Amino acid sequence: MSYENAWLNYRMRQDCRDKKYFSKVYAGDNCLYTQTAVRELEIAAREILDIKTERVGNCETAGIWLKLDQNSEAGEEGYHIREKDGRIIISSAGGRGLLYGSFALIRRLQLEQTLEGICIEQVPSNPYRMLNHWDNMDGSIERGYSGNSFFFQDEMVLVNERTRAYARLAASAGINASVINNVNVRGNATKLITDVYGEELRQMSEIFAQYGIRLFLSLNFAAPMELGNLDTADPLDDRVKAWWKEAMADIFGRIPNLGGFLVKADSEGRPGPFTYGRDHADGANTLAEAAAPHGGVIIWRCFVYNCQQDWRDRKTDRAKAGYENFMPLDGKFKENVILQIKNGPMDFQVREPLSPLLDGLQDTNQILEVQIAQEYTGQQRHICYLIPMFKEISDGSFRKNNWGMAAISNTGNDENWTGHDLAAANLYGFGRLSFDSELTAEEIAEEWAVCTFGKNEKVTKTVVKMLLMSWPAYEKYTSPLGIGWMVNPNHHYGPNVDGYEYDRWGTYHRADHLGIGVDRSSRGTGYARQYREPLASIYENILTCPEELLLFFHHVPYTYRLRSGKTLIQHIYDTHFEGAQDAAELAVLWDSLEGCISEKVFERVKKRLEHQKEHAGEWRDQINTYFFRKSMIPDEKGRHIYE
Ligand code: GCW
């Protein structure tokens, strides 16, 4: 399958005054990352400036100097770029910093910003900037919307030119770690930690290493039984401990660029420590002890809840589960364990409050998990630019012991990597935001649009506008005010208000003829009390609860007046008419770009936007009709609501 270069799709620039810098490059060292950096500068010089770069032996004649500087305040991954005496110096305390600095320089070329007088310093905002791929060994991707896996096919590990293209794209956006297999580890994927796939994984990890990316694997907690023939996977059993030690010594010995493992345990049917009466700290620590001598880390997911709930049970609240399971363990995890916490307490809905664990945990390393695979936000058939959401939730200040951000990836082997061309903005944007949390969602959108489509004011303006209106639009025409779900079970695409209402997954809206929403105040499930003050009180009280989360925290009558003066039911009708209207406008905006971008891309996106427009209409009608039938309150504005 062929592939495109996404935002690294370089375009030739005529008469660029910055050509002079690129004719001669000097690298003071020859480490792996510096070699990659020089190669990248050469590619950019050739493809953007139409010149051949010469590698020179000293800094005197060089136009670009890659300078390793042990004392650089930018650290190992940060960089400093400055122009001095007609020469650009990129310096860093580490080779990876030089690589990121080189990509930053190239980006400026793409953006047609002058390099003269450049002086920037950048230190990554997050130590780990990870992609989590939910790729299966048969080539399918769980919640994948961009074709099949480019890591696996027919139970084999793939290593080819696309592996390199992936690493290059990821690194250019700032990603430094990648988990290549699904957290639901089954079948042959369990064997990824053995030498059965050793050679391919070593090769892959070496390609990743050139781009500063650590390879991670998801592992199966029951591996000691499935691979080791033990009769238990009890983390406190000595045989189990010994088994893990040996398994880790083996794999880290074979794959030096392995960063560690990601673990989904006791979650949605996956094995875990609960089977043996142990807790998550017991489970994670046994693995961590085995990985520690090799510098490995264990990333342990907190997505643990009862997925066998009874809808009749109003006391159990799935939203509470993460906190209940992990908060008591705060401080009990080994140094090389990092807890990975989904941004919200439920599951990647279009709107959720922040998980109370993020702010709750005081003595535990954490990584914030978000999803760029648009499982619940349009599955890459709708545009939904999620960076504004991530911006809201990642504002670092609330997190202690922050180890970074992970995103469930939206990639696959489609030619354009992300199915929807505009979904690549989420991939790029996640990397950029995790590297530099100061960037605004708009700045990122603009960078992405120019790098992808070239510098054309009309295109940039239109694309940025479309991206920025897309998340609010999606929220408007889908589920209102933080209630979430209302989708078709299993595949999660399209409206189905009661799809999960009587199911076992703990995802209810509790609508009746008078109102809708889940009471999570102390009169209800008590979830709001998991937050630290002042948030607990803010959420607890319907009058202070942020309105976009109203139905997440409260059961509210349809006749309740919102701050806008509108009743709740009127708000539901209005937002659904508006959201569908926005979706129609997205299509019109895109149409205005006909002739300004390649026909192939234009047509690809146009098709998806037509679907989005129609599908948004379906959402509008199903939601409006559902609530009209429940409440029997007509639309004040007399618009058509099907009966
Ligand atoms: O969002 C849910 C998905 C599952 C996924 C799970 C998880 C990988 O529907 O497909 O499993 O979350 O995050 O583990």
From TrEMBL:
Any Pfam family matching the protein: Glyco_hydro_67C
UniProt KW Ribosomal protein keyword: no
Alphabetized UniProt keyword annotations: Glycosidase, Hydrolase
Domain of life where this protein originates: Bacteria
Coiled-coil segments: none
Catalytic residues (UniProt): E268, D347, E375
GO biological-process terms attached to the record: xylan catabolic process
GO molecular function: alpha-glucuronidase activity; xylan alpha-1,2-glucuronosidase activity
GO CC annotations on file: extracellular region
Ranges where the Glycosyl hydrolase family 67 C-terminal domain occurs: 418-639
Gene3D superfamilies attached to this UniProt entry: Alpha-glucuronidase, C-terminal domain (3.90.1330.10), Chitobiase/beta-hexosaminidase domain 2-like (3.30.379.10), Glycosidases (3.20.20.80)
PANTHER family recorded: ALPHA-GLUCURONIDASE A
Protein's name in the database: Xylan alpha-(1->2)-glucuronosidase
Species this chain originates from: Robinsoniella peoriensis
The organism's taxonomic lineage, starting at the top: Bacteria, Bacillati, Bacillota, Clostridia, Lachnospirales
